[in-house]
Each structure stands twice: as C-alpha cells, then as structure tokens.
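Form P-L/3: holo structure prediction, ligand zinc ion.
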Amino acid sequence: MSVMHKGLAALGLVMLATPALAADDPLTAPVAAKYAGAFGEPAPPRLLYGNTWALGSPTLSVTVVDSGEGLVLIDAGLAQWAPVLEAHLAQIGHSIREVKLIVSTEPHYDHASGIAALARDSGARVVASEAGAQVLRAGHSGRSDPQFTELFAYPPVPVVEVVRDGETLRVGSLELTAHATPGHTPGSMSWSWKSCAHTGGCQAFVATASLSALTDEVYRYSDPANAQALAAFRGSFTRLRALPCERVIASHPQHAQAAGATGAAVEAPCRALADHFEGELAKVLAREAAG
Ligand SMILES: [Zn+2]
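OUTPUT (holo model):
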C-alpha cells in the first residue's frame, strides 16, 4: 500500500466517524432541486418563546422544543438540511443526541425527507399518525395522497411509532399532544404543547400540518370516491378552531402570514389559519365544479 493509499484509508475512518457529514451519506442525499428549490436553506436558530425554537427556513418550518430533559423535533425539513440543523442545534448549546422524539406533521419530502438521517444520528423515537407512519416507512406516498404524482421519494424511516388523535406524548415534563388534521395528506397531524418562560408565563403553541388543498392533475376533492377524505378535511378545520392556541407555527411559515395568524397580537391564530384554508378549499371545490 502506498503512502497515498494509507492517507485515503485514514480519511475513510474519519468519514465513518461523522456519518452526517459524509458526502456520500445516502440519508442526506439532496432532494432534487426542482422539488427543493422553493425551500431555501435553514436560517440560524430563532427563539420563539420559552423553550421553543425555530430552526427552519422562511418557507419551511422545523421546530425544536427543549423539555429540559431532552429535545423534541417537529419535522426535519429536507434530507440535505440534516447536517446544517445539527450544527445549528450545537450553536444553541445542544447535541443531536439530546433529541429524544421526532414527530411528523405530514409525510411529504419537504417536511420528512430529513427524518431518517436525524433519527439515525439522534437515536430518537419517530412518531406519526397511522397513515403518516405508513408513508414514512415506505419513503413515498400512495394514490390516497392528493399530490401523489408530483411527490419526491425519500429515505424511508425504518421504525415509526403510531399516535392517535388526542394522544399525549411525554419527554421529561413536556407534554406534546397529537391532533389529527387530515386533508392535505391523509395522515396530516398537528401538535400542541405549552411553552413557558421564566417571566411572562406560558403560551399555548400549536404546530400545524399544511392545510392547503393542493392536488396533482388527477385528484379531485369533489370526486365521490374522496367524500370521506373531504369530510375529514372539513373536520380538521373544526378541530383546529377548538384548540387552545395562542401561537401557531405553520409548517410553511408563509401560510400563517397569508392567514394573518402570525405575531403575538393575533388573538386566535389557529382560527385564522383554519378560516383562511377552509376558504382556499372552497375555491378549489368551486374550480373543480366549474371544470
Ligand atoms: Zn405537503
């Protein structure tokens, strides 16, 4: 073996020791630019309130909640974000190994393609709805997804636990409750928790799954075969309006802006979000009826 080859072997060992940084890591292989382009890069961590931080970009949310006895991640963003998110966690004094729980709002590539890498690097439990878990384990959606033909397949998540509507998960003293909000995908799930600050009390946070009525060229919400899915979508708006909700984190932040649901001055941000997207669904149904 030449000196050069010994050098390469040593480099190989270093790369094995830091899998998330390896250029050939299959779990962080970039989502194709055509799909990923709209989501930019993770911004530096921003403290939202108390124990709750935003790690995502202006168009794609990743949220971390610090229980004091471990971290919870809500969504993971794009697969190629994983090393950056881990570096950003380090900037706020946390190791990826402190993440004990990763929950998913929906199993589309933009929110979920990074889960496999972050779950591997953290050893965290991954939890989703039953329909969401099925897609995460496969790495791709089926025809029940309104956007089926326009989605990007991503690294499957080997082990995903299922949570039902209304169930509460605990990490330390933090309680995170699941709220089924299907419609954008059959398995969409929103999550609520209380974030408390040393001064200023607690705020009821809700991280909402996407509520947009987007479809590919085949799916129609008004198709009689999708009547149950449409009824479930309408139920999501009702459920969201009823939640204790002082701060909303939309899975795409611009959705909260469009609905007027951002900022501390908004009194009922979940209601604002539900009203806006129920209106958007009505427009889609009207377009389907017209043509
Ligand atoms: Zn989506």
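COMMENT: The pocket of zinc ion is lined by residues 106, 108, 184, 210 (CB under 6 Å).
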